[in-house]
Design a protein that fits this description.
The chain contains 15 helices and 11 strands. The protein is α/β, with parallel strands linked by helices. The chain has a domain at 7-247 and 258-263 and 387-473: Amidase signature (AS) enzymes (Alpha-Beta Complex), CATH 3.90.1300. Helix 9 (303-318) packs across helix 12. A hairpin with a 6-residue loop joins strand 10 (434-442) and strand 11 (449-456). The chain has an 11-stranded mixed beta sheet with strand order 1-3-2-4-6-5-10-11-9-7-8, with helices on both faces.
């Protein structure tokens, strides 16, 4: 009954009392029951609690409560965000049995905006992966082809939105983990500027790179969610006290906007159909009034190596807290060392262990300067590339991913090939800027979504949302229904 409807569609229907919040929530629960056995986007969900929240929203609607843009809208969460009295696994065995004692700031903000917050969405363990195959709960499958991956690490978040199991969702993005799965599942995914959205209550992977953002069916919905989530939070030392614009009001025309096209992103490894879709999208943007400018981001070639030094170093430090002492699973041992080894050996999966080992190595005595310190210097060069480019352009356009969704298991045995799946998204996190992925086409056979990435200057979300909305409104790629 409510398939493919957006936040804005449903808000209007709720205001006119054409539908109730309970009916919307029940529709999502019915869809989960119908399709999630094949997709496995959800790790868990509490139907009784979700319907109770919906009934509370209906009572507010009856009283005419105003100023809540998400009132009665079901929003599902990646299993890396804390929700009080709910499990928090991060897709890992090591947090088995852990129940969160508090709400993340973004959860508080969603509730304040009236959202129905429900469900735990599957993910690569501790957000380490590009395919959602690294979850202790099993892989998530792409709604467009269940033999293929949905992207990662927020694969459950993207798949759930694409499959109409929720109206929108939240994910986290450390190197492309919102944008890449959004591209592969044919939805909109937004990574805000570092510091725009509070990370309080987000289980850390790499603290200088992580950022929470929305996945939605349309750019307008992503703008609504971003507005609700953003703002300074004193509980997060990296949260920036920057004013939050009215993002919805920014979705106007793009005549005269300058968009940079970096030569370094149109590389030989880019799938021909993806390249053709992006080329067509760039022409469409020019036709809508944007000025396309050739630019260079000369340190792009170093981004993957730089990222996998910095991210793994920070991961090795952040994940040291999971030791069997304070929370989660514990494997008993004869002494503390044996307990630590047993707990971490049994609790962490292969990819997490790989990154902890690599991160510990690059931080170790004799290697810190050669690897970690040098990577931080290169990171500064990459950020300066973007800042210099933004002196002449308002945004940058690139592919989101080098290929459409690949088959489950296709890259599992080759970590380097898996890491290269994020080649176009990693630089955005290193530079701390904002980025959005929007649908821009499909491959021919099989029919799989292709994503277009728009990158903006720090706190330049208004510009990329404006460009994305103009493209979306003049093309037919959004709102497509997968063959479930």
């Amino acid at each position: 009954m409510l398939h493919r409807l957006t936040i804005s569609d449903l808000a209007a229907k709720l205001a006119r009392r054409e539908v109730s919040a309970r009916e919307i929530m029940q529709s999502c629960l019915d869809q989960i029951a119908r399709v999630d056995g094949r997709i496995h986007a959800f790790i868990s969900h509490d139907a009784e609690d979700a319907l109770a929240q919906a009934d509370a929203a209906d009572r507010e609607l009856t009283r005419g409560v105003a100023g809540k843009p998400l009132l009665g809208i079901p929003i599902a969460l990646k299993d890396v965000l804390a929700v009080k009295n709910q499990p928090l696994h991060c897709g890992s065995k090591i947090l088995d049995g852990f129940i969160s004692p508090y709400d993340a700031t973004v959860v508080e903000k969603l509730r304040a905006a009236g959202a129905i917050v429900f469900g735990r969405l599957n993910m690569d363990e501790f957000a380490m992966g590009s395919s959602t195959e690294n979850s202790a709960f099993g892989p998530t499958r792409n709604p467009w082809d269940i033999e293929r991956i949905p992207g990662g690490s927020s694969g459950g978040s993207a798949a759930a939105v694409a499959a109409d199991e929720c109206i929108a969702s939240l994910g986290s993005d450390t190197g492309g983990s919102i944008r890449q799965p959004a591209a592969l599942c044919g939805v909109v995914g937004l990574k805000p500027t570092y510091g725009r959205v509070s990370r309080y209550g987000l289980v850390a992977f790499a603290s200088s790179l992580d950022q929470i953002g929305p996945l939605a069916k349309t750019v307008s919905d992503a703008a609504t969610l971003l507005g609700a989530m953003s703002g300074h939070d004193p509980r997060d030392s990296t949260s920036v006290p920057q004013p939050v614009p009215d993002y919805g009001a920014a979705l106007t025309g793009i005549k005269g906007i300058k968009i940079g096209l970096p030569a370094e992103y149109m590389i030989g490894g880019l799938d021909p159909e993806a390249k053709a879709a992006v080329d067509t999208a760039v022409k469409k943007l020019a036709g809508l009034g944007a000025e396309i400018v050739d630019i260079s981001l000369p340190h792009t070639d170093y981004a993957v190596a730089t990222y996998y030094i910095i991210a793994t170093a920070e991961a090795s430090a952040n994940l040291a807290r999971f030791d069997g002492v304070r929370y989660g699973a514990r494997v008993e041992g004869a002494d503390l060392a044996e307990m630590y080894c047993g707990t971490r050996g049994a609790g962490f999966g292969p990819e997490v262990k790989r990154r902890i080992i690599l991160g510990t190595y690059v931080l170790s005595s004799g290697y810190y300067d050669a690897y970690y310190l040098r990577a931080q210097k290169v990171r500064t060069l990459i950020r300066n590339d973007f800042l210099q480019a933004f002196e002449t352009v308002d945004a940058i356009v690139t592919p989101t991913a080098p290929t459409a969704a690949f088959r489950i298991g296709e890259k599992s045995a080759d970590p380097l090939q898996m890491y290269l799946s994020d080649i176009f998204t990693i630089s955005c996190n290193l530079a701390g800027i904002c980025g959005i992925s929007i649908p821009c086409g499909f491959t021919s056979a099989p029919r799989l979504p292709i994503g277009l990435q728009l990158l903006g200057k720090p706190f330049g979300e208004e510009s990329i949302l404006k460009i994305a909305a103009a493209f979306e409104q003049d093309t037919a790629w959004h709102g497509q229904k997968p063959p479930l």
